[in-house]
Amino acid sequence: MANYKLGVLYGDGIGPEIVKASVEVLKAATQQANNGTTFEYKELPMGWEGIKKYNDPVPEITKKGLEDTNGWLMAPHDSAAYPDEHRISKRNPSGELRHHFDLYSNVRPSRALPGTTSLVGNADLVVFRENTEGFLSDRNMYKGTGEYMVNKDVALVTGVFTRQATERIAHEAFKLAMTRRKKVTIVHKANVIKFAYELFRDVCYEVGEKYYPEVEVNDFHIDAMTAHLVRRAEEFDVIVTTNLFGDILSDLAGELVGSLGLSASLNTNGEQAMAQAAHGSAPDIAGQNVANPTSMLLSTVMLLQWLANHHDDHHLNVIAEVIENAVLQTIAEGPTTRDLGGTASTTEFTEAVITRMQA
Ligand code: ATP
Ligand code: MG
Predict the structure, then answer these.
(1) Are residues 20 and 79 part of one domain?
(2) Which ranges carry the Isopropylmalate dehydrogenase-like domain (predicted)?
(3) What is the CATH number of the domain that holds 228?
(4) What is the pLDDT of residues 54-101, one digit of tens each?
């Protein structure tokens, strides 16, 4: 009869719409499972709400509030539109939270779902994105952004790559591969950025030796990898890569299997987990009730599964399954949202998921 504390961050753009949908579905699924599990929801400001109330997109009250949770639902943020004071020389809200909580592992699965138009057959792969280093680094010089204007016409960007951070993300990737098709692909650019990416590649291979001979390993340069992903995505199982490449590859994979609106992700530090859609705040469709909340719903499923594993609590897996089945059935049979070729609004889709759950 466990109670879990979950943070809820509504964020910007389509954030409030897709996070609200996820909380509603989670509440309905908890009721449906009726297995004694309860959740306590803690709404905390992030993004424009934080700027307006506390002059900070990730105010102290939010960080403090999250410390006391098992995990949280993180909305996207439209940080590109923030006033210069918050936009320049500062991490964006995801970066700030990843840094503050050392959420080093970003897991981004992409699989073709029935009812969607996959451009790459039955692809089913998981991208592990190192979350704390590289060119989108939190450990960099220059106020943590890694960027510096040498003069008004010259910009300099630095990146940090360490053995320690590479080892921990590689272990996560290999561990998951053991439960899947047992293949890991390391993605880098060691032919051009030699020190940094050779270190990343070689440390991943070293970690791979601990999983030998069960797990098969290979590696590709990022440019070749984008071509392989388009041509033969079905062959990939687990991909482990650096921060920037992981950001790009997971968007590519997400859209190839159907829509960015389906792309879920989970950020973890081993103790807490942050569920977060892999896409951005989609300002082009914000406030129109047309966004696909599936990305956030499936991120919530990932959070529940991670908590189930971490707390050895099968009841959470039952709730996760209730949500996942209802979402997948709704996508397969309709109604679906615009990005998938349907006409359902965000709220209509969400209601359909809840109705299916209760059927
Ligand atoms: P960021 O830098 O914050 O990741 P981005 O530039 O990658 O942002 P997104 O906000 O991810 O851009 O949007 C990319 C495109 O995908 C947009 O056209 C947007 O409308 C669409 N999109 C993103 N998420 C969804 C969703 N949940 N449902 C429908 N369309 C979406
Ligand atoms: Mg993006």
Answers:
(1) yes
(2) 5-353
(3) 3.40.718.10
(4) 999 999 999 999 999 999 999 999 999 999 888 876 788 998 999 899
Q: Which residues pair with 262 in a beta bridge?
A: none
- Kindly give the distance from the C-alpha atom of residue 280 to the centroid of ligand 1, in angstroms, as a whole number: 5
Q: Give Cα 63 distance to the centre of its chain.
A: 19
User: Atom 17 (ligand 1): residue with closest C-alpha?
Assistant: 282
* 296 C-beta closer than 6 A to ligand 1: no
- Same domain (yes/no): 126, 213: yes
Q: Tell me the two tokens of residue 287.
A: 């406030």
Distance 197 CA to ligand 1 centre (A): 29
The span from the CA of 277 to the CA of 259, in Å, is: 12
Q: What is the domain range of residue 177?
A: 118-257
- Ligand 1 within 6 A of CB of 261: yes
Are residues 320 and 304 in contact, defined by beta-carbon separation less than 8 angstroms? yes
Domain endpoint, select from 238, 257, 276 = 257
202 and 319: one domain?
no
Do 228 and 304 fall within a single domain?
Answer: no
Q: How far is the CA of 278 from the centre of ligand 2 (A)?
A: 7
Q: Which residues crowd ion ligand 2, with CB under 5 Å?
A: 280
